[in-house]
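@channel sequence for tomorrow's demo:
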Amino acid sequence: MPNSYFQFKQFRVEQDACAMKVSTDACLLGAVAPVEGSARILDVGTGTGLLALMAAQRNPAARVVAVELEAAAAAQAAANFGASPWSGRLELHALPLARFAASRPAPFDHILCNPPFFRNSLRSPNAGRTTARHTAADSLTFGELAEFAATFLTPAGQLTVLLPPSEMGYFEREAAATGLYPTARCILHHRPGSKPLRHITSFGWQAGVASTQLLFLHHEDGTTYSRPFRELLSPFYLAL
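structure tokens (generated this afternoon):
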């Protein structure tokens, strides 16, 4: 059974009320996303509040807003925000993204999202986990996320998303339809020679060739962490 909390160097994430717990790939999204220099950051589907907390730690000048539609997760994220060193810069909205959009928030310099992953695979019997992992009519679709970003990003703003490779290809097409194009890709592998696990892709308004970085979580032996992994997560993980 997962721990009821995950302790980072500067904050703790309580997670017993959230369907999706803290994961390595989500932590990497929080560490890789280029949030430096952003005055306003939005975390869509914040869950435990992990990405918002990481953004607040990495950018001490930013106002970080989070949206979460699941009531129990939103309450836990709000508690995690309140217990953090950055509670004065963190803001939680417990409502669906469409209702948040209807409130006409000020534009964002960066939008982060670890969105629902699987459009057509089997649903989990856990309803909260299904909402967190699958796109559905009552959840967040790729098209809705792309449309929101296209409406509420600043002219120099970026959207950074984490998805499996096949799903990222689909999302890129949805984003392109709104005028957003990949600017940078970080492709996660378990170790050299293994298949890609996840893509972390940043989108902006300028069409062109996106830079690509391969990130191996482990060395060839598959057990010891790679140096780039350690460098990215050493500001956060207690064991690094």
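heads up for whoever presents: Confidence is low (pLDDT under 50) at residues 118-138.
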